[in-house]
């Protein structure tokens, strides 16, 4: 039976200050997409509100050195997928083998409070699916509660973009909250690599998380190996 993956992207186009644009960090989607496509998996893209997913301008500098993102940008059919994303309520969790939360700072604003995303994630987890996230995508896991009202991340090992990486990226003062601290406050066993901005993946059963944009390939590869 073919495996089915749902990618989650953001609808947000700017920080709290509209003069600071943001959006999907494209390579975090494309690297995973390529891994899953190589396995022949069915893939779909959703977002909290459905519709357009803006791109993070800073991430668009990477395609000069990133063949995966560059190929996506040059493919009209794939770019169109980011204009017509589905809503979480359009997806039956029973038909999904894994959910993959992409990042980019945008997700900090619309992932955590999306009730539809929480419902979908809970459904996938409780029917035995894999829940995964890369970089800021782990913000989408902050408020997911299971049917027994426990937090999905409580007592489980996770990683995601660290606060020191926010500081080194020069954007810490613009963040709506400290995602690393919020994850720890929910009882998650947060881990990070000793060196910032290196690939790092943490696996706790069916929960797979990658620390930063450079972890996307390894995160997707781990999801594929579990599938």
CATH architecture: 3-Layer(aba) Sandwich
CATH class: Alpha Beta
* Backbone shape: globular
Q: Helix coverage percent of residues? A: 25-40%
Helix segment tally: 8
CATH fold assignment: Rossmann fold
Termini gap = 11 Å
Element-by-element helix/strand order: EHEHHEHHEEHHEEEH
Strand order, biggest sheet? 2-1-3-4-8-7
Unreliable stretches: none
The fraction of residues assigned to DSSP E strands is 5-15%
Rounded to the nearest angstrom, the radius of gyration is 16 Å
Please provide the count of β strands. Answer: 8
Characterize the largest beta sheet: strand count, sense, and whether it forms a barrel: 6 strands, mixed
Structural class by helix and strand composition: alpha/beta
Count of separate structural domains: 1
The CATH superfamily is Class I glutamine amidotransferase (GATase) domain
Average pLDDT, rounded to a whole number, is: 96
Q: How would you describe this structure to a colleague?
A:
By secondary structure, this protein is of the alpha/beta class. Helix content is 29%, strand content 14%. It contains 8 helices and 8 strands, in the order βαβααβααββααβββα. It has helices spanning 26-38, 67-73, 76-81, 107-110, 115-126, 163-168, 179-185, 216-226, and strands spanning 4-8, 42-46, 98-101, 130-134, 157-158, 189-190, 201-204, 207-210. The strands form 2 sheets. It has a 6-stranded mixed beta sheet. Strands 5-6 form a two-stranded parallel ribbon. Helix 1 (26-38) runs parallel beside helix 8 (216-226). It is globular. The protein starts with a strand and ends with a helix.
